[in-house]
């Protein structure tokens, strides 16, 4: 199954269905906070990151996230990804340490994915 760079809003039921191609209980994605683009799907965040980079994104602007479905049918958004390790940007961890970056990433993701 191919990775999707979203071109239109995606309802959570479609996200859940798309997730069945990988983990089922979650889906991995990446968000470009400069270009305001979201890519969904893959076994590893780096794969969707690479798709965004091929599409014109700069890797420093791309952050990884997961949507988990175990906790709630509407999904739980979390930022836990190896893609987020960016020591040169003062982000040495798998989460996003800068609250403004995290807030911007979440805002963009929620503009593309319809959480209920």
The largest pleated sheet is described as:
5 strands, antiparallel
Q: If strands are numbered along the chain, what order do they take across the biggest sheet?
A: 1-4-3-5-6
- How many beta-strand elements? 7
Cα(first) to Cα(last) distance is 26 Å
Overall geometry comes to globular
What does this structure look like?
The protein has one domain (4-114). The longest helix has 14 residues, at 99-112. The chain is an alpha+beta fold. The protein contains 3 helices and 7 strands. Strands 1-4-3-5-6 form a 5-stranded antiparallel sheet, sandwiched between helices. The protein has a two-stranded parallel ribbon with strand order 2-7.
Write the topology of this structure.
Blueprint: E1 4-5, E2 10-11, H1 12-19, E3 26-32, E4 37-40, H2 45-54, E5 62-68, E6 76-78, H3 99-112, E7 113-114
